[in-house]
Specification:
By secondary structure, the chain is α/β, with parallel strands linked by helices. The protein is built from 8 helices and 10 strands. The strands form 3 sheets. It has a 6-stranded mixed sheet with strand order 7-2-1-8-9-10. α2 packs antiparallel against α3 (about 95-105) and α3 runs antiparallel to α7 (about 210-220). The longest helix is centred in the middle third of the chain and has 16 residues, at about 115-130.
């Protein structure tokens, strides 16, 4: 059984989805410290030919709180504003008609928890793409918050009886292959390949690493599924 563990990101870039697709179980690490100005509640869209950073507003977010204790802001208008921005940016995209209803369902999910909003949205993305990866919120199952760093990751792998653990390439210095090997867990790192596809203006330079929404708006599900395999393991 292959496992990955990542902090929950809202409408993440394709590399995040590649990692999710590469494993049998994907753990949303939602009981670790929130990261200010990270990707938990932010991502990028293509608006008027330019990269546009959107942010889901939060209430009293702090790096002193775990992600699953951070709440959405008491602002009833943010969902409508975000959906309007997406509509204005992508209504002429080839797959807007099929992707926008899914987007509306994700953004309008009723919750005051950023962790639960992200969990729901990733379940919906999995279903839309036909992925079979099991998604787990770490706060609901493992009861190992007293452990830190690699020790905690190994404990989750052991609880899940994982034979392989895949981590993003940026974490190579954080984990030790011999230590994982002692526990009979193969450790590898995923490196996303740059995936290009036609955006609105073929004469304009391609803007990479936007939200998975951008990928879905311009490509059918079969094409996106193939894109999810565009990575290498090291």
């Amino acid at each position: 059984m292959t496992l990955a563990i990542m902090q929950p990101y809202f409408l993440p870039y394709i590399g995040y989805m590649q990692l999710m697709n590469a494993v049998d179980t994907f753990v949303l690490y939602d009981d670790v410290a929130f990261i200010n100005r990270g990707w938990i509640n932010r991502n990028k869209l293509l608006i008027n030919g330019q990269e546009y950073l959107f942010t889901v507003p939060l209430k009293d977010a702090s790096q002193n709180k775990p992600i699953n204790e951070v709440h959405l802001a008491d602002d009833p208008k943010w969902r409508g504003k975000l959906l309007k921005t997406i509509e204005q940016g992508y209504r002429k995209a080839p797959h807007y008609g099929t992707v926008m209803p899914v987007t509306e369902k994700m953004v309008n999910f009723t919750t005051d928890s950023i962790a639960d909003l992200i969990y729901f949205s990733l379940v919906e993305l999995n279903q839309h793409l036909g992925l079979t990866t099991r998604l787990v919120q770490s706060s609901t199952i493992y009861n190992n918050g007293h452990l830190k760093a690699q020790e905690r990751i190994l404990d989750i792998c052991q609880q899940e009886k994982a034979s392989a653990y895949i981590n993003p390439i940026g974490g190579m210095e954080l984990y030790d292959k011999p230590t994982f090997a002692q526990e009979k867990i193969a450790l590898s790192f995923i490196k996303a390949k740059r995936v290009e596809y036609p955006q609105f203006n073929r004469n304009q330079e391609f803007i990479p690493w936007l939200s998975i929404l951008d990928v879905l708006m311009f490509n059918d599900v079969t094409t996106v599924r193939a894109m999810l395999d565009e990575y290498e393991l090291v």
